[in-house]
Design goal:
binds D-xylitol-5-phosphate; 8-stranded parallel β-sheet; alpha/beta; single chain; binds zinc ion
């Protein structure tokens, strides 16, 4: 099943609960939550208290994307705040990739591994069997509203092939610069989950979500 994961980084934070309910009502199954620490990425977004306060708004999947240095230190706190899937960056964990995966698993949560545009697939290849989600960054992480990096399409194709050949359970999620104009290209390349921030939350949220949902259905056939 193909899934839309609206990134609340581009939401109107004064109406966050309402906007989350709008995207869920229009068909989104994941809420993508971008956590930035100002160290691994240049910007700072929000953390556990925000996640905790929106948790009662919906029972849909909280897809937490940690753009933080040494994420292993904070897994328990994100679990307590309400995360369902915890995705960390392979570049951020000082080589402690397996330990980070094990830590997330120890709380019975789904594990996601992410790679930056400049990181080759071989860096995450040894861990693919161990994760539930592979997050392909199609922009340099840190800000919403950036332009999709075209080379990402080739990376999605490469990962799709690997996942299918090895019959892995992991889904492929793609994050950054996905708009109405290029979502087809991303799905065609083999994405299972589409993350979209500004393209969902700027303008009419329900209408935008509806557009993406129709695109997903088309590729489902
Ligand atoms: C980038 C974040 C993305 C971003 C997506 O650092 O991980 O989730 O918010 O936003 P758009 O869809 O606007 O590129
Ligand atoms: Zn993200």
């Amino acid at each position: 099943m193909l899934i839309l994961a609206p990134s609340i980084l581009s939401a109107d934070f004064s109406r966050l609960g309402e906007q989350i309910q709008a995207v869920v009502h229009a068909g989104a199954r994941y809420i993508h939550i971008d956590v930035m620490d100002g160290i691994f990425v240049p910007s700072i977004s929000f953390g556990m208290p925000v996640i905790q306060s929106i948790r009662p708004c919906t029972d849909c999947v909280f897809d937490v994307h940690l753009m933080i240095d040494r994420p292993e230190r904070y897994i328990e706190e994100f679990v307590k705040a309400g995360a369902d899937i915890i995705t960390f960056h392979v570049e951020a964990c000082d080589g402690r990739v397996k330990e980070t995966i094990d830590k997330i698993r120890s709380y019975d949560k789904k594990v996601g591994i992410s790679l930056n545009p400049a990181t080759p697939v071989c860096e995450i290849e040894p861990y693919l069997e161990l994760v539930d989600l592979i997050l392909v960054m199609s922009v340099n992480p840190g800000f919403g509203g950036q332009k999709y990096i075209e080379e990402s399409t080739e990376k999605i194709v490469q990962l799709r092939k690997l996942v299918d050949e090895r019959k892995l359970k992991a889904v492929i999620s793609v994050d950054g610069g996905i708009k109405k104009e290029n979502v087809g290209e991303v799905l065609e390349a083999g994405a299972d989950v589409v993350v979209a921030g500004s393209a969902v939350f700027h303008g009419d949220v329900e209408e935008n979500t509806g557009f993406f949902m129709r695109q997903l259905r088309e590729f489902e056939r």
